[in-house]
Design a protein that fits this description.
Elements (H helix, E strand, L loop, with lengths): L1 H57 L3 H36 L2
Length: about 100
Amino acid sequence: MPLLVIEVAAEATAAAVVVVLVVVVVVVVAAAAVVVAVAAAAVVGVVVVVVAVVLPLTIKDRDCLVVVVVVVVVVVVVVVVVVVVVVVAATAAAAETSH
């Protein structure tokens, strides 16, 4: 009988360890997602300042300015989309490992 109690206790302890590890992984991925979102917001803010203030002061040709602004906006949008896809994929992978 005591052997059965020890086996049950060992299984319960192992299950608790797995749950704790899964929670840690999910929390770390969520924290990384927040850090990435804040960094992306900072980058977008810098790009907005550059596009709104710096470029018009340095590029006097209006057609050239339009092309540069469009290129900058497209690049920023692509980068943000890639970051969002990577964060969503990482979060989904972490959630999948928890099941």
